[in-house]
Amino acid sequence: MEGKRRYFWKGDKILWENFFKHYILCLEHVIFLSRLLHEDETIKSSDIPIYKSEDMLPTEIYKERIKELNKNFFSDRFIQEYINFIVSNPNKKYSEEMYVHLKTITGRALDYIFESHAEAGFIPKNKESINREEKTPDLDLTNVWSQFNEQPESEVIYTEIMDFLHTYFKEKDSESLYIYKDYPKLQSIFVEFPQMYLDKIVDLLYPKVYIACFMDNCSNSSVWGTYGNNHTGVCLKFKTDLEKPKLSLKTIVGYSSKSGKNVDFKDFTLKPIKYSYDYDELDFLKNIGKLPFKQLKEQWYSDDEGNLSQSYIDLFSNEDVWRSQYWGNFEYPYLLKTPDWSHEKEYRIMHSNSLNDFIDYKDRLLEYKFEDLESIIFGMKTPVEARTKIIEIINKKCDENNRESFDFYEMEFSTIKKGFYPRKILTINKELSR
């Protein structure tokens, strides 16, 4: 459950139409890509081009084809009614409900995408034209919702209906996955894509974050059993201010056109974990923070006539306030774990940069100052060979850094204290080195 947020969608018609445009753009892309794959290959979440916009398409012909595809899709009577139905419902749409909405409209989207590809000559034209009026329920969804919304406990009933539909679609997915078990490519497009899209699109919100984990003590036996590899590992104890714990680590602090990456020591705050069953809620459509401002405005917050969404006006009338709230929400889910983990008494250092996702693991290997390493604590079963090697390394480090002494401990079980504690077993000093 670490890092988990509960995302919801809420907005006006401009935002919803742009959301579905983005979905169709991504769906069309993976369908086109699938024709280049072997039958036993599959579409992966990394294949979904969430950063893509119509302006980025490589040719004018491609752009016109997508414009025509959108025009046909949004002219569909069922789609018009369905979007009006969503907009008229003022409640938050959480991921489970969004999955229902995407599953509901994906069939229509696929029809129009295949028609577009047929018109472009990518696939043979369907000899039998699709009569969508027959496929469209004779139902005014907006009117149904307005009447339904007037009923007592309408929100509770609506939530139950959406929960039922979510379960229904998930069960149908399981059946379809079995039917297409020998066709993984078809599985990923016709069954799995809506959920893959919802899982992937949240990458538009915040940069990646990398985490180093610490504890305020090492006396818990179960922690040694898991992270300490069944008590055979070692624990590193660092010096820090107990009031405001932090650790100085060498990392990328900037970039230069001449020298490239600039590295230096930087203080990282050790932040305590909150153990709770609470969770973080985040409005997806108001926290798309990784896109350039121009693309964000044109792709998400305005329509084809240049009309702006009310959300754009509300958010960016005071951009400093929005930015402060945006970054204020960033860390919360990474500092939250369920009470099942409270025995760890954990603190975390978080590493992130909006200009660098630290994809290269070497950029995430941060060097600490040897002077900050207070001591090393062996587990009860740390092998002799490992202990000897570690002591030799530390001895050499002490010489290189002109350090007077260094302490080693070993975890011990005390029948008197009725628990585990670190017992000192060795102190390296200059006399011992000689």
Structural features, described:
Helix content is 42%, strand content 19%. The chain contains 15 helices and 15 strands. A four-stranded mixed beta sheet has the order 4-13-14-15. It has a three-stranded mixed beta sheet with strand order 2-1-9. Strands 3-11-7 form a three-stranded antiparallel beta sheet, with no helix packed on it. It is an alpha+beta fold and 434 residues long.
Keywords:
alpha+beta; 4-stranded mixed beta sheet; elongated; 434 residues; 3-stranded mixed beta sheet; 2 domains
Poorly predicted sequence stretches spanning 5 or more consecutive residues: none
Question: Strands across the major sheet, in which order?
Answer: 4-13-14-15
Strand portion: 15-25%
Could you say how many structural domains there are in total? 2
Mean pLDDT: 88
Rg calculated over all Cα atoms: 28 Å
Counted by DSSP, the helix tally is 15
Largest sheet entry:
4 strands, mixed
In which range does the helix fraction lie? 40-55%
Q: What is the N-to-C succession of helices and strands?
A: EHHHEHHHHHHEHEEEEEEHHHEEEEHEEH
Distance between the termini: 51 Å
Instruction: Please tally the β strands and state the result.
Output: 15
Q: What global shape is seen?
A: elongated
Structural class: alpha+beta
